[in-house]
Amino acid sequence: MSERLPTSPAFWRSPLRGPRLTSLLGVVLLAGITVLFVTGLVSYAAYNPNLSPVNDKTPDKGLLGFYLFAWPTDPPWLYRLNQGTHVTLGIALIPVLLAKLWSVIPKLFELPPARSLGHALERLSLLVLVGSALFEFVTGVLNVQLDYVFPGSFYPLHFYGAWVFFAAFVAHAALKMPTVLRNIRRERGGETGELVAPRSDAPTSDPPTVSRRGALQFVGGSSLFLLATTVGQNFDGPLRRTAILAPHGGPEPGSGPGGFQINKTAAAVGVGADETSDEAWRLVVEGRRTVRLSRAQLHELPLYSAALPIACVEGWSTGDQWWRGVRLRDLAELAGYDRGREPDLFVESLQRAGSFRRAALRDNQVRDPRSLLALYVNGEPLTPDHGYPARIIVPAAPGVLNTKWVSRLTFGDL
Ligand SMILES: Nc1nc2c(c(=O)[nH]1)N[C@H]1C(S)=C(S)[C@@H](COP(=O)(O)O)O[C@H]1N2
Ligand SMILES: [Mo]
């Protein structure tokens, strides 16, 4: 067999590639990806997907939706922590994933394709594993960096991809665990950076250009670099500016009461002053009865304050902002629902096109006294970019449910 073909073991000449490296990287990924999977499922539940078809256009999750639960409103930083962990960890694991793929590349090209049925299944599961892992990392990063480039919706793609991946991952980890443990125990000598004798699966290695320890340090260093340049997007002030690799989700917000991160500006979604002025804008509240309110009339209702963050699915979040406005449960009462019997809520924005102009909230979110139709933030009227004249803010909810430029609230069971 020619040495120039990738199907020949001799084609892959790095002596670093070997069971110990593969196993160490595998253990790191086992732990990291388990956290990614769990925080991902939790994040999906936070999005109220089964208040369909409003929040998710592919309502029928069937069996895979078995675990969905009503997302709580406490603690208020719940989504912020969950999503910050999911995105930051996912980005930091990229070098580990790439190194792991590099370390097993020869296996993907092995000939003959299958020696037995068992071997065929193992290779098939490896293909599914590699394919779906790449799919999840690529869709996740694209979503964060390029702002929902997907046809249809990102959520079902990433959600189904995660389940395909996890099935292959569990099978793979179970099959490989005995080998992993053996490799890590047997080759302790490798820890000093010495290379153990060439193995039979790397018969014609080139001389090493870095030690195995050097390679691991490179991978770990790359991970730490990504972590250090991403994690700042979860904080305010100078720390936020360290997030040089994170997309800032919009223009620099500047300073002052509205000086915190903006997802989409009013200009970007075509919401103009002609529609938001006090003369033009009316809030329509529907339910058992319909009420139309101007901004001045909203001020005749009791106003309350709540300190709550904005936490985006893309992994950035702000610290607590001081919101002030009308309680959603008071508006439910205006729409004819008794206190304590608040229904779900469908929210619509002035925005006419694009994503996130509508969202559905669950009854427990409507009932929480901190859930507001906010008119003010940090002591000033909302800025146009943060949703003037009125926006939703709900404790612990993903940013995407906090609709800006609200025009209509429809109370009722969804
Ligand atoms: N009408 C409307 N509301 C919206 C959005 C939008 O694009 N249009 N973006 C949502 C998303 S994804 C987030 S993270 C928050 C961001 O709020 P902020 O821009 O005030 O920080 O607003 C939400 N509300
Ligand atoms: Mo968002």
TrEMBL record:
The superkingdom of the source organism is Bacteria
**InterPro entries documented for this protein:** Mopterin_OxRdtase_euk, OxRdtase_Mopterin-bd_dom, OxRdtase_Mopterin-bd_sf
Annotated ranges, domain Oxidoreductase molybdopterin-binding:
277-411
What residue intervals traverse the membrane?
21-47, 86-105, 126-145, 157-175
Q: Which UniProt keywords apply?
A: Membrane, Transmembrane, Transmembrane helix
Give one Pfam family, short name only. Answer: Oxidored_molyb
The name this protein carries in UniProt is Molybdopterin-dependent oxidoreductase
